[in-house]
Design a protein that fits this description.
Number of strands: 5
Radius of gyration: 15 Å
Oligomer: single chain
Low-confidence stretches: none
Number of helices: 5
Distance between the termini: 26 Å
Number of domains: 1
Mean pLDDT: 94
Order of helices and strands: EHEHEHEEHH
């Protein structure tokens, strides 16, 4: 199993982003923020050609449970889902929560990470299928 989960979509980044936000909401997560990486790089004087948006998503109830067990996991929160242009397609990608949890020594959170991963991958799949 790879650490990064990717799906390809054909379509407009704005539309795919809207569908991702709908999927996030449907899974009882929320979008905490969206980073337009291309715009941020331009603000810093870097001519970054590849459109990329990073969606920070979280389920506060689950995050609270996880952080009650191990505050260091806050370094890996919130979960991120990236949309970026590759040729004429949009890639939707995320890190697998189960793989990230392996970086911490908290085995009793494995079932929580598996549940979060199911939701996150479903969000990615749903956003990709709308295009």
């Amino acid at each position: 199993m790879t650490m990064v989960y990717r799906r390809q979509a054909i379509g407009d980044m704005d539309a795919i982003g809207r569908h991702l936000e709908e999927a996030v909401k449907a899974h009882e997560f929320g979008v905490l923020g969206v980073i337009d990486l291309q715009a941020k790089m331009k603000e810093k004087g870097v001519d970054f050609k590849n459109p990329c948006r990073i969606y920070e998503v979280c389920n506060p109830r689950i995050a609270g449970q996880v952080l009650d067990k191990e505050m260091a996991i806050s370094t890996a929160l919130p979960c991120r889902i990236s949309l970026y242009k590759e040729g004429d397609k949009i890639t939707i990608a995320t890190l697998r929560p189960t793989q990230i949890l392996c970086l911490f020594d908290v085995p009793d959170l494995a079932t929580v990470a598996e549940a979060v991963e199911r939701d996150i991958l479903a969000m990615v799949d749903e956003a990709a299928s709308y295009a």
